[in-house]
Structures are given as structure tokens and as C-alpha cells.
Design goal:
Shape: elongated
Helix content: 40-55%
Structural class: alpha+beta
Strand order of the largest sheet: 1-2-3
Number of domains: 2
Length: about 180
């Protein structure tokens, strides 16, 4: 998945609307300054649980944390959802259901080797029938693999503050 931030202009020297797009679709923002756009994106990412509430306010020079969060997320429904590989999503859903790989395979009618390969990421792009069988085995709707159902904000990253402090120490003087 992933996203990109674009600012197409229609007239030379005139600032146009912002466009964020990815495989999930497109999202338009009114013409705003770069700082105002990044402040709005930061609020949305915090409300969605993608960024921690104490993430730094973006500035003209410092907004990489917001950019990277957008690049690693998709706009689904009315919120930002972090992109994750199918393997990670399957493992998390299986663990939330308190099932072993063997139990999920049995409930899904699949071979345990198939479940293992999908969770390990050695088998990618499963057939629709396989995804449907997994959702039946998990007793979930298929949207758990493509939408926000079943998604929970991640636990706060213990190293996040340390990385932010290190980043602020490496900023050039005069900011």
C-alpha cells in the first residue's frame, strides 16, 4: 500500500490543492501552507492512533515524522491505518483469536503448512478462497484483512522518545 503527498499546480507560482494518494485511492486537501497541511495530518494521525499524542508539532523544516507516517499508512474509511504485510496481519488476528496455527488450519479447512507459510511471509498473495477460508476459521468478516475492523492502535513505542531526542540533538543550530 503506502501513500505519497503531491501538490500539483495549475498555474505557475500559484499554490494548488494538496493530493495524497496511494493504492487505497486519493484524498484532496484545500490549498494550505506546508506547515498547516502537516499540522492537520499530524492531528489526523494522532486521532487514528498512528502517531503518539506527544509527537512533535511539525514545522517548515521538521515534518519527516508526519511524512513517514503517511507514507506507511492508508486512508481507509475515515481514519489512517498503518500498512502491514498480510503475514503480520494474519498472525496478529490468529493470536487475538487465541488459536494455534494448527487450530486455525483445522477450523479453516487448510493445510497447516499453508497457514505457516502465509504467516512467515514465504507464501504471498494468497488466493481469494484461501483468505475466505482463513476468515471463516477466525470467525471474522473478510474486512479484517483490508480495512479497519480488527485493527487496534499499536502499543506506544518505548524507543520513540529516545529516537526523537537523538533527532533533535542532530538538528542544525538556529532552528
Amino acid at each position: 500500500m503506502g501513500s505519497q503527498i503531491l501538490r500539483p499546480t495549475t498555474v505557475k507560482r500559484q499554490k494548488g490543492e494538496w493530493l495524497i494518494q496511494g493504492s487505497w485511492g486519493r484524498r484532496r486537501y484545500a490549498p494550505l501552507s506546508k506547515v498547516t497541511l502537516y499540522e492537520q495530518l499530524r492531528r489526523e494521525l494522532i486521532e487514528s492512533g498512528v502517531l503518539p499524542a506527544d509527537s512533535p508539532v511539525p514545522s517548515n523544516r521538521y515534518h519527516d515524522h508526519v511524512t513517514m507516517a503517511v507514507l506507511r499508512s492508508s486512508w481507509i474509511g475515515d481514519r489512517w491505518v498503518p500498512d502491514e504485510p498480510f503475514a503480520a496481519r494474519l498472525k496478529k488476528l490468529r493470536e487475538q483469536a487465541n488459536l494455534t496455527q494448527e487450530q486455525l488450519a483445522q477450523k479453516s479447512g487448510l493445510d497447516v503448512g499453508t497457514v505457516r507459510q502465509l504467516e512467515q511471509g514465504t507464501r504471498t498473495n494468497p488466493l481469494w478462497q484461501t483468505v475466505s477460508a482463513l476468515t471463516r476459521g477466525l470467525d471474522k468478516n473478510v474486512v479484517v484483512f483490508v480495512g479497519t475492523d480488527g485493527w487496534q492502535p499499536p502499543e506506544p513505542d518505548q524507543d520513540w522518545r529516545r529516537r526523537q531526542k537523538q533527532a533533535s540533538r542532530t538538528e542544525p543550530p538556529g532552528r
